[in-house]
Amino acid sequence: MKRLTGLLTVLVLFASGTVPASAAQTIGYPAFTGPSIPAPPVGYGTGSTMRAIYDAESAGTDFWMDRLLARPGNDPAGNFLMTRGRGLFMYTHNPGVIGFGGRSAYWDDISGQNAYSIGVSPGSFTEQVSGRVQKPSHYRGVFTSGAIRVEMTKFITHNNVAVTNLTIVNTGGSAATLQLRATSPYATTASGTELTGSRPVKNNLTTIRPRLSGDGFGVNNGGLDRSVTVGVGQTVTTKVVMGFLTTEIPESSTEYQSYRGYSPATAFATHVRAYNRWWADNIPYIDVPDPAIKKSIYYRWWLMRFNHLDVDIPGQDYQFPVSIEGVTGYNNAIVLTQPMHIDDLKYLRDPVYSYGPWLSVGQTSRGGRFMDNPGDPENWSNSYTQYVSEAAWRSYQVHGGQPSIAALLARYAEGDAKGQLSFYDTNNNGVIEYDWGALTGNDADAVSFDWRPGRLDRAETAYVWSGAVAAQQAYALAGNTAKAAEMQSLADRIRTGVINTLWNPSRQLLEHKHVATNAHVPWKEINNYYPFSVGLMPNTDQYKQALRLFAQPTEYPVFPFYTANQKDKAEAAAAGHPGSNNFSTINSTVQFRLYSSVLRSYPNQWMTAEDYKKLLYWNAWAQYVGGNTQWPDANEFWADWNGSTIQYRSWIHHNVLGSSNWTVIEDAAGLRPRTDGLIELSPINIGWSHFAVNNLRHRNADLSVVWDDPADGVTRYNGVPQGYSVYLNGTRAFTVDRLTRVLYDPATGQVTLPSGGSVVHQTAVPGVRAPRDVVQNGARVVDVFAKAGVDLTSSRPNPAAGASASYTASGTSVGAAVDGFPINEPIWGSSGSPNGTDWYELNFGQQRSVGEVRLYFRDDRAGNRYRAPASYQVQYWNGSGWADVPGQVRAPAEPRANYNQVRFTPVNTQRVRVVMTHAAGFRTGLTEIKVY
């Protein structure tokens, strides 16, 4: 009854035109502690500042990023190892082991064992915890026994080589002879001076073939032994090297051989320089006034690298580079968090980092709703609260590329939008419904599911709408006007469904709806506001009333950034449904998205730029243990906030759950992704006196945004005028006198200021392209798109049609392999065939000259029916019979799951076929065949 009385009061105030009194977000700003934060070795420059920082230190082995993120001594976040390779890392780390102790992992925990350990005898060597120094590129530890001191430096190279350098020092009064023994559970077979082995990784996705060796070590009884004598006051150095080699990464073998041959000092210098050069090559330099915020930005860049998997495993699992949700935890490309990661990854200079995750999702989701990566199906596997298509479209707006990239994205996005509705919208009202909120990061925090049992029409439908909109825009850019119109109609239907179904006029709120009783659910979460976050809601005073709750910290506090409305959470608890009340970077990401949209598109009296700034600062603070900038640790979630401290930090450490670097680039600095050739700044002014975002790769140009407030008269960046400026390829494109919305045309130099201000400088910068006019031709991006069925090197027609086969399994079809879409399903398959060899034929209907075939073989590890064939032969009809095409050159040389390219001397023919000899115990399937 008390709740109803309050509601009537609100309605009376609305009816009378009186605005109800609003509370303010009363929380202030957090206090950061910790030692001074290292400054870069050089100042800001209008070229690449990250490159200048690297170059200033490139002759040595001590780099700014290593110093910035160093973790000395006993780490309160626990024992973990920051250094990792593209596939190899330590799932857990035991610092008391000389070598790589703990649970070694190749994409995931291999078998709960050390990679390798090195014993030193005689003596009892004890680790000196105070001697630990953990840096992103390497780890140092110290072990002592009597007068002998062993200094260990270890690191993992990009291509999965684990190196341990040992410096053995004798501080005693007599010479000492020591026995060193290196052993690994993964390499036990003698091969010359090495130990080798073979081990499948989790779920049999691939096989690693470890090789273990050491300087001066010899093979002895399953281990590597070396005897060293260290004279009085002398030092001996040596190293042990273990490569985790795979067929699909030939560089792993090359890199192992290189590091095996280096001296310890050369090995260390080579690795550390390469590791730190990556920062200069890939991330923008970002400068902000507060060092604690600045460090958190670079910590987040490191998290993206630490939680990145790039193992090129052939097939439809991890062939594409992906972002992993918690390599020290769930360790999968969980679809819920992929768009959050993409939003940050798109600001790495190489488009592969942001394109890879959406290519992977699209390729493994059967042409329908997006799902978690099938390589590890054990966690979550729910797809209804993700905005992959929306984020992927923004990544395209930033990097651009051939229209065929947009066309592929459009097809994925269409499949997801339609698939979500087909699976979840059982009452056909354009709104998805479900009855369980199993979402990583807030699975027990969504109170609405406890109000009444049964399915709810949900506001998360907003992401289905944004996906349909992304599909419409991508189809339009690719020139497919019919599909663009179809997707626009779908988006309109979803939007109407959300507004008509979820808007509660009596409470002037968006509320989930209980399907069985057609009743609005009064218990809410931040999820209720997704339609505002994506711009689905009309911008009217009526609908903006729903935002009033954000002025009430008792309902939606800026911090902690909870999932549930806190009044509703208390009511649910009183009704016997306490659930949990965690908060995480997922939640702050959702809040950032809401504020980013609302402050621009739904201006109101309840949500302010000051709130946004508080959110930004508290988001950074939560990721430092106790607010101490020495110890950043992004956990899966946090709990038990007591008003000043976080009492519980969850067990997954250094998790890249959620995202936030995009907020500094797109909101504080104001750079907005666009589809046309213009450059737009639309900043949220949070009162910073200065900032710089330097050397982003924006389409085909290097772009920097710099702000230096003219009002204070202090010049903060040498060579950069005060005001709000954009630089393109090192040239100052424009400067305006204040933080304001700016539209700039690089072709003409025209500057438009819709919100006011004055132009101080403007000039044209010719050659800056719109997204669709960018040509992506880097070797890696060409390769990953080829594996997804798109040829970025040519616009040749693919005449593959008229298919037939010697045998076609039930549930498959010959047409599935010529639909232009080499996704994991549908396929043509020969499962159940009595033949040891089967063929698949194309009949073009007329003579054609062909000189290349691309084959995409299915590998269904879970179903265990299909593998790449043992061998295959491409043949053509010569008018009287089948003949092998001449001069075949294959890449790869041996058949491999998914993409295989066969080039040959062109032949004129009407018919082409592939004859496949099945792998023992399996049959062959094709997800696609392309002919050129």
Automatic annotation (TrEMBL):
F5/8 type C domain ranges (all copies): 785-932
Keyword terms: Signal
Keyword Transferase tagged: no
Keyword Electron transport: no
Domain of life, source organism: Bacteria
Signal peptide: 1-23
Name of the protein this chain belongs to: F5/8 type C domain-containing protein
Organism expressing this protein natively: Lentzea roselyniae
